[in-house]
Write the structure tokens for this entry.
Amino acid sequence: MSEDVDPQALQQDLDRIKDAMGIAERYESAPEQWLLFSVLVAAGSAVSQVLLFARAAGFWYPVVWVGLFGAGSLVLSRRYDYAFGPGHSEPNVGFQVLVVYFGSFAALSAVDPFLPELGYLADKALALGLVAVMLGLGYLVAGETLKAYRIRARDRYVLHGGGLLLVALGVAIPTVDVLHTWSYAAFGASYVVYAAASYLVLTRT
């Protein structure tokens, strides 16, 4: 004997199932990509800290970071067929983070005429602090966007937590004197710890 199936009820059941899905369940390669990103941040922070000690010219910092993340983006596109461009029918979370992140460079350009009075360490601390704040805001936006993909709350909170951490760190770096000297070390170490903890959360079923 056959029973009539209510399409609306069936769709609601499917939506509830989707709501319980984590990032790693929806996108199997996401945790691996997460670790790759943390390795790039650690490498960029280590090299930048050396540049800071050496009082290197300012142009070396974007060379290091753009070079590392350019290579990382190439790996993602080749290995995972991942694109950072705007989404078609759905928002692209990576694109949203990048837009906010690159907004920090526009902000730095706007305040650059007022920076000559700062010393070398203070100047670099301000720049990194602003980038960290903007990156943190990008993470917060991304965490909200994942609701559209029906990602479970626990995994979205990973991005929310990372966003708050980066914003707090971005405020601390320019305002705490000792962090002027160890700005990139603090940024890199904090991000690696966050990424490792996030990986454990994202891969837990």
Notes: The chain has one domain: 24-202. The chain has a mean pLDDT of 84. Residues 120-145 form the longest helix (26 residues).
